[in-house]
Amino acid sequence: MTVLHDFSSDEVEYFERQYPEDLEHIFALHGPEMPLLIFTGTRDNRHVEEWQKHFALIERRIDFLFCLFFHVLIDQALNSTRRRERLNTWSASRRHVAQPKLHGVLGTARSNISPFYLLTSAALWRDDETDVDKKLIAYSRLFRRESEEQNIPYDFLVTRDISRVTQTFANHYSEFVRPYFHNQKPDMELLELWGSLLLRELGVTHANEGDI
Predict the structure, then answer these.
(1) How far apart, in whole angstroms, are the C-alpha atoms of residue 2 and residue 201?
(2) Which 8-state DSSP code applies to residue 90?
(3) What is the DSSP letter of 99?
(4) How confident is the model at residue 95 (pLDDT cuts 50, 70, 90)?
(5) C-beta of residue 111 within 8 angstroms of C-beta of residue 119
(6) Which residue, 19, 51, 76, 95, has most beta carbons within 10 Å?
(7) Domain contains 210
(8) Is residue 189 in some structural domain?
(9) Average pLDDT rounded to a whole number, residues 156-182
């Protein structure tokens, strides 16, 4: 098992206690199948307005989006590699939380979209007082630890799926902005940096030589 300590008690506390509650708060409206537009700052869309109001009540929005990003990333990798395991998170009272499913416009197509759209959304909610780069890596390592503790083959998922989709984002991050982000534009330099940080964290090299 990999031993990692590069995350703070604050991040552990959020992941173990508050994140499941925030997730259930979003699920309370229509279940775990969520349209991305909840998190993109889209205005004047009555179909997602109720969801957006619920999301606005989440105090630590960037923590939530980072956790949701890694949660969906691992869940989709398990599906892509046809593994039977599931990454379970829980609240302090040990209530199991359903697996979040991320969909495109309004979520009506019931087809999953890339979790990197969530990472793109997170760039909209940064603040000057938070070291978001450090927090991103901290949650990456926290989710690795959590996966290993649940006997999920994290390194296998990285090799077979996660490295590939991360490479795609790092090389083509601007394409993740065009479909859904009309009212607000994320910081492109920040997205480029996050792609590079995640590739380094995963041990992927030659980030600019094309998709793997």
Answers:
(1) 13
(2) B
(3) P
(4) low
(5) no
(6) 19
(7) no
(8) yes
(9) 91
Alpha helices in the chain (DSSP H): 9-13, 19-30, 49-56, 61-80, 116-122, 132-149, 154-157, 163-172, 188-202
Q: Is residue 192 over pLDDT 90?
A: yes
d(CA 35, CA 113): 10
**180 falls within a domain:** yes
Structural domain includes residue 207: no
Asked if 181 and 119 count as a contact pair (C-beta separation under 8 A), the reply is no
Q: How confident is the model at residue 38 (pLDDT cuts 50, 70, 90)?
A: confident
Distances (CA, A) of 146 to 10, 53, 89, 117, 208: 16, 30, 9, 23, 30
Side-chain-facing half-sphere of 3: CA atoms under 13 Å:
0
Strands 101-103 and 33-35: parallel
183: tokens are: 């009212």
Residue 37, domain extent: 9-202
Closest alpha carbon to 164 in 68, 80, 86: 80
Amino acid at 210: G
CA distance 159 to 134: 23
Report the alpha-carbon distance of residue 206 to residue 212 in Å, rounded: 10
d(CA 201, CA 105): 31
What is the identity of the amino acid at 82?
Answer: R
Token digits for 27? Answer: 């699920």
